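Exercise 7. Predict the joint structure of the components listed below.
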Amino acid sequence: MRRRKQSQGRGLLFVALLTALVLQLWPLFGGVALWRPQFVLLVLTFALIYRPDYYGIATAWAAGLVMDAVTGGVFGRYALALGICAYLLHLFRQRLLHAHVWHQSGLVFLLVAMTQLVVMSINTSAGSGTSWTLVWYPAITSALLWPLFYTLMMRLTRR
Amino acid sequence: MLGLLALVLVFVDSYTTWLKPARNYLEEVVYPLHWLADLPGRMAEWGEESTLSRADLTSENHQLKAQLLVLRASQQRMSGLEAENIRLRSLLNATEMVKDRVQVAELIGISPDPLSHTFTINRGSADDVFVGQAVLGADGLMGQVVDVFSGHSRVLLITDSRHALPVQVRRNGLRAIAEGIGDGNLKLRYISPTMDIAEGDLLESSGLGDRYPAGYPVGTVERIEHDPGQAFVEVIVAPSEPLNRRRTVLLVFPSEEQLGSSGK
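Solution:
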C-alpha cells in the first residue's frame, strides 16, 4: 500500500515537471516574457527537498538538458545551472526541510538568480547580447510564486 | 561529476559541431512539448473561429472582397510596371528580377528566452526548408531559418542581437548594415553624419550577401542621434513587420536561376 502511494507521488512529480516544461515554453510576447518564473526549477526544488529518494542531481541535470533542447541555445547550459542548483539543494536539504516557507522562498530567489547568471554568461560567451538586470525579474516572480506552489504541491502529494 | 560533463558539453557545443546529430535527435524528441505549449492558443483560435456569427462572417467576406478588388487593380498596374522594368533592365544588360516562390508556414512556438529572438515554425526538411532560407511576413522581412529538423525549424529574427543584414534606403539606394540590438529594434552600423538618411526613411533588403532576396521592406528609420564626439551617428530602425504577434509566415524559395548564379 505504502509502495503504491509512493509511486503515485513519483508520477505526480513527473507530471509536474512536464507541466513546468510546457509552461516554460508557453508563448509569451513582449515584456511579459521577461518576468516568466523558472517553473522547472520550482518543481526541482520541491522534488529535491521533499522527495530526495527519487529525485537527485541526475534528474535535475536531465531536465536541464531537455531545457537546452527546447530553448535551442548552447547545449549544456541549463544542465550545468540546474545541476549546480541540485547540488546546493542536496547539501542544505536537512536545513531546508524544516525551514519556513518564506525562508525557502528566499533560497528560490537565489537559485533562480544563479541559474540566470550561469545561463546568461554562457549565452554571452556564445555571442548573444545580454542585459544583466534581467537576472532579477524571473528570480522575483519565482520567489513570489514559491509559497503558492509549495502549498499546492503539499496538498497534492499528501493526499 | 555531472557538472563537469555539463561543462564539457558547453565547451564542445560552443567550439565544434560534433554534437549536431545528438542535438537534432533530442530536438525531435522534445518537439511534442512545443506542440503542447501551443495547443491552448490554437484551441482559442479555433473556438473564436467556430463561434463567429454568420453576420460577422458575411461582413468580413464583403470586406475581403473589396480589399481583393483594390489589390487586383493595383496588381494590374504592377504587371505593367514589371514588364517595363524587365525591358529597361534588358536594355541595361542587368540580370532579370525573378519572382520568388513562397510557402506558408505557421508559427508554433517562440523562444522562452526573452533575449534570444527566435521562433519555431511547423515546416521542416520534409517541406524542403533549408538553413539560411528567408522568412517573410505580410509587411516585410522577418528573419532566416537557422536550424532545420524533420517537421519543424527554428527561425532567427532580424531583431536578434546575433543577426545583421545588408539593407538599402529605398529613397536613394544608400547601403548600410542593419543589426539587431535585442530590444525589438535594429541599428544601422557605420553611418557617417554626412550621409543622406532621414527619420521615416524606408529600408529594404539589398540582396547583397546572397541570403535575403532583394527589395523586401525591413523597417523604417525611427530615430537618428548624433553625438558630436562620435565618428558615426546612431540610427535606430523599427522593423516594418510586427515581429511578435504574427502567426502565419512565408518561406521564400529562390528560383532556379538565382540558385545557379549564386553558386549554391
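Discussion. DSSP finds four helices and twelve strands in chain B.
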